[in-house]
Every structure is written in C-alpha cells, then in structure tokens.
Amino acid sequence: RYLSPSVERVLGYRSEEMIGTSTAEYVHPDDMERALAELAEAASKPGVHPVAVETRVRHKDGSWRHLEGIANNLLDDPAVEGIVFNHRDVTERKQAEEEVRRLNEELEDRVQERTARLAAALAELGSSEERFRATFDQAAVGVAHVDPDGRWLRVNSRLCEVTGYRREDLLGMTFQEITHPDDLETDLEQAQRLLAGEINTYSMEKRYIKKDGSIVWINLIGSLVREPSGEPAYFIGVIEDITERKKAEEALRQSEERYRAVVKQSTDGIYLVDADTRRILETNPALQKMLGYSPQELQGMELYEIVAHDRKSVEANVERTLREGERFIRERRYRRKDGSVVEVEVVASAIHYGGKRVICAAIRDITERKRAEEALREAR
Predict the structure, then answer these.
(1) Which residues pair with 359 in a beta bridge?
(2) Non-local CB neighbours of 339 within 8 Å, separated by 6+ positions
(3) Among 190, 189, 248, which residue's Cα sits nearest to residue 217?
(4) Between helices 129-138 and 91-125, what is the axis angle to 10°?
(5) Which of 43, 87, 145, 203 has its CB 3.0 to 4.6 Å from that of 111, i.e. a possible disulfide?
(6) For the segment 331-369, what is each residue's pLDDT rounded down to a tens digit?
(7) Which helix (H) or strand (E) holds 352?
C-alpha cells in the first residue's frame, strides 16, 4: 500500500510500480515459507511488538538483494491499518559472510585432504620402516613428529631447509624456540585443543625464526597420534613454506594503499561505477567537493544523476568504454547537488575491482579554461 522513497534506491522500482502488487512477486521462492511465517507472527502480535524479518527480494534488474529488519502490526491503528516493515539492505554483508564461509570450507577441505593423504601414507608405510623413512625424508613439504611438550622427535630434510637448522640441531630443540613470539600463543592454544580432543586437526599460518635470524612464513597443518590407551603419543606437523606468497600479498596491500593515497590526494575527481547497475561505488574527496555531495550521498547514486546529458548519450559512452577498455571523453557537463553544471573532461577505463567489472573515471574541472577561451574569442 505504501513504500518510502528509499525503496527505489535499494530495489530500483518506482513507488507506482509496486503499489497494488503482491509481495509474493518479489520474494525469493526459497524464502517464501519463512516470509509467510514471519508475516503470520507479526499478524499475531498487534501493536508495537517488533518481529525480526529477513528475506531476499528481487531487484528491478533481476538480481537478489538481502533485506533484514523488523515488522510491527499496526492494523488496528486507523492512521496506518497495515503491517509496517522497516528493512535495511545487507546484501554486501551477506556476500562477505558467504565468501568467508566458502573460504573456510575450502581451507577445511584442503586440511582434511592433506591430513588424509599423509595419514594414509604413514599407515601404508608403517609396516616398512625403510620405506617410511624414504617417504618422510623425500617429501616436498616439511614433516615432523613432535612430542606433547614441543620437542622435535623426527624431522625431514625439507624442514631443515625451511628453518636453516641441521637435523641434529632441531632434535635438541622445541618448536616453541623457533616460533615467532607473536604467533606462539595461538599455536599453543591449537595444540592444547588437539590434546583435549576438541579437534582432530588444525591449520594456521605462522612464522619461524630461522637459524640466521631471518623470518620464514609457513602454513602448518597439525594433528595428533595417540597410543592404543588413548594417551597422546606425538604431534604430526606438515609445514609448507609460504614466504613468497606472503610477500606477494604484502606487495599487493602496499600497492592498494598507494593507490588509495593517490586517489585521495588527487585534484581530479575520481569515482568507480558498477558496470552492471551503473551505480557509483566509491568517490574521492575531489569529486565530492566538485559536485557538492558527501561520500554517503554519492555512494549508490546512478551515473545518470550526476552526468548532465541524456541517458542515451551516457549509455553510449559506458558501452564504448567497456568494449574498448579505455576512452578519453572530451568535454562533458556534470550536475552539482545545487543543480548547477560544471564543465569537465573525462577519462574512463574498464577495470576489475572487488570481484566485479567496474568503470574508473577521472574528471577534471575545465570551467576556468572554458571561460578563458570564451574571453579570448570575444577579444578576437
């Protein structure tokens, strides 16, 4: 019966498009049963008694948006006569949660796969000490047996290469002695959980301090072998050197920091636009100042709201940029918040950012230049 103006920004529909239609047309089929249950619960609690609601709703462009909020039954209120839903868009949070869940599942699968492979190899070779030693020593990753107190019992050649210690040196030490102090507490906590039987295996990234004092990053997969009586016998550690990967991640992080610093300090207005929805994702201070909007106001606005040209012209430039990868768009007009127009030059590029294709555009205010050109023309 009624929708607030912000619904159009979240779902893309104008109010008149949804008024009179059924909510069932927009709710995701898999969420319909829950949505009906939430509606029934709200209907059973007249007055201001908030009922938590959560569902996926179809955007006008066909995508699904995750909405959550509360419902209040105001059917008996003569000024309302309806159930009022207050939603907020949590799509990005849900996507982030799903990505974390997926990564955790992948990591767990990898841990279980590696542990299973190692356990199978050790079980197969258990009857042959000679074959076991050959496999243990020739493994492409570091492998070690460690007693419950942390003392190295057996180490292979690859672990010696990773740590820089000779085999006889390590066998007289504990893993605590070469673990970076900042990582030791977490490592010990996981080991205690193995000993307590809370977990069967664990995986973590940590640092070793090599014999020469340098740092090596490793991925550790730890498990526990028990005696027939159930008492802990020794830990099995599988150690993979990930130093190069960590360096690459750090280089990427620094590159992103430099990029953000350049964008933030640039005197040109810079913004990112979602190539699919044409909505603004990020802006820099120069653009905000040039157009008179706050960052929050610009985020989520459509490109057509700030470009003072007809939609067909805007679409043509967007499609050419996506097709050609980079485009110099000469003089354009952008619309400020107060309705005035600023003359600019635009350079746009199609890039991949945050897992999606976006357009990165830089605009330069040429108002003063245009005035100078006009004055020169008049003088001539």
Answers:
(1) 273, 350
(2) none
(3) 248
(4) 140
(5) 203
(6) 899 999 999 999 999 998 998 887 788 999 999 998 888
(7) strand 341-353
Distance CA 286, CA 280 (A): 15
Distances (CA, A) of 95 to 68, 92, 212: 14, 5, 44
What secondary structure does DSSP assign to 169-212, as a single string? HHTTSBHHHHB-HHHHHHHHHHHHHHHHTS-SEEEEEEEEE-TT
The 3-state DSSP class for residue 344 equals strand
Structure tokens at 265: 């300090």
Please list the residues that pair with 88 across neighbouring strands.
68
Higher pLDDT, 329 or 18: 18
What residue spans of the chain are helical by DSSP H?
6-11, 15-18, 32-43, 91-125, 129-138, 157-163, 167-170, 175-178, 181-196, 243-265, 285-291, 295-298, 311-324, 367-379
Q: How far is CA 7 from CA 38, 48, 66, 105, 279, in A?
A: 20, 22, 13, 35, 15
Q: Are strands 232-241 and 356-365 parallel, antiparallel or unpaired?
A: unpaired
pTM for this model (two decimals)? 0.46
Cα–Cα distance for residue pair 278/298, rounded to 1 Å? 12
Q: What is the three-class DSSP state of 217?
A: strand
CB 84, CB 72: distance < 8 Å: yes
Q: What is the DSSP string of 120-162?
A: HHHHHHTT-HHHHHHHHHH-SSEEEEE-TTSBEEEE-HHHHHH
Backbone angles phi, psi at 210, to 5 degrees: -70, 170
Place of tokens 């067909």: 312
The per-residue pLDDT for range 280-289, each reduced to its tens digit, is 999 999 999 9
What are 46-78's pLDDT values in tens digits? 888 888 888 999 999 999 999 988 888 898 888
R_g over Cα of the chain:
31
CA-CA distance, 2 to 39, in Å (whole number)?
A: 17
CA–CA gap between residue 292 and residue 286 (Å, rounded): 10
